[in-house]
Fold this protein.
Amino acid sequence: MKRPLLTAAAFTTMLALPAQALDLDQMSEAERAAFRAEIRAYLLENPEVIMEAVDVLEKRQQQARAQDDTDLVKVNAEDIFNDGHSWVGGNPDGDITLVEFMDYRCGYCRRAFDEVETLLESDGNIRFIVKEFPILGEESTLASRFAIATQQVAGDEAYKSVHDTLMAFNGAINEASLSRIADSLGLDPHAITAHMNSDEVTKVIAENHDLAQRLSISGTPSFVMANHMLRGYLPAEDMQRMADEIRTQ
C-alpha cells in the first residue's frame, strides 16, 4: 500500500523527536520523499523561517568569531600590551587599553585618527598604544621607519609630533619630504633618516607584522580593546560604547 504524505501535524511532531528518531537512513524512500515534501511546503508557506534561521546562524558565527578573537588576544597579551617598543599615549594608567594597528597611507586610519583623539580626550581613562603596521607599499614603510626612528632617536614626544603630522600629510613620502617634516618640527633630520634603515627599526616592524599575523590582522585600522578585537574603522561613539560595556563586565 502506498504511504500517504506526512501531514503538517506529523511534520511538527517529527521535528520534536530526538535527532536519532529523524534518521533519514532509517526511512523508506516514500517516507523520505514525504518528509522532504512537508519541509518544502512548510518553508514555502512560511519563508520568514528561512530568514530567522539565517539570522540565528549569523549570530552564532559572530559569537564564535568573537570568542576566537578573545582567545587570540589572551594568548598574545604580553606582545599586544607590553612589547616595550610601541608608543604609549592617552592615560598611561587608564583602566582600559586600546591598541591600534595602523598605516600612514590608509584612508580609514586617517579617519580613525580624529575619532581616537576624540575618544581619548572625552573618556580620559584609556591607555592608547600605536602599532606601526605598514602594509600599503613603499611609502607606508618609509613613513613607519621614519616614525619609529624618530621615537628611538628623539623620544616619545617627538614621535607623537611626527605621528600626528604624518597622519595629516598629503604629499609624496620620500626622504626629502620626511627631512622637511623633521626640520619643521625642530628635530634633527640627518640623525633620524640615518637611523631609518637600522636593525632596531627593522626589528620593530618585523615584530609588529608577526604579531598581526598571529592575530589574523590583514587590514588597517585594526584595534584591540581589552580582550576584544575591533576589525576596521569605528566612530568614537561606538568605541566609547564598547569601553563602557567592558567596564560593566
